[in-house]
Amino acid sequence: MSQLLYIPALCLAKLSTLVYLRALSPETAYAAVNQILEVFILLSGVAIELRIAFQCTLPDAWAIISGTCFNMVSFHL
C-alpha cells in the first residue's frame, strides 16, 4: 500500500526539480526539453501507478500474498 504513495511523491519531487530548473533558465530550447521531460515523468508515473495498483490478475487484484503477482524487485530495476 505504501508503494501507491511512493510513486506520486517521487514524481512530484522530480517535477518540482524540473520546474525550478525551468525558472532558472527560461531559454526556449531548454524549456522545450524540460516540457518533454515533464510529460514523460507524468506518463511514466501514471503507468507505474496503475501497474502497481493492479499487479495481480484481475479477479484477485489485491491478493499480493498469493504469489501470482509480477516481480516488484525486477520491475524497479
Structure commentary:
It is a single chain. This protein is an all-alpha fold and 77 residues long. The chain has one domain. Helix content is 70%, strand content 0%. It contains 3 helices and no strands. Helix 1 packs antiparallel against helix 2. It is elongated, with a radius of gyration of 16 Å. The mean pLDDT is 79.
Supply database-style keywords:
3 helices; mainly alpha; single chain; 77 residues
Estimate the mean pLDDT confidence: 79
Structural domains: how many: 1
Shape: elongated
Distance N to C terminus: 19 Å
Please report the number of helical segments.
3
Element-by-element helix/strand order = HHH
Q: In what range is the share of β-strand residues? A: under 5%
- Class from secondary-structure proportions: mainly alpha
How is the topology of this model organized?
Layout lengths: L1 H23 L3 H26 L18 H5 L1
Structure, briefly:
The protein has 77 residues and is mainly α.
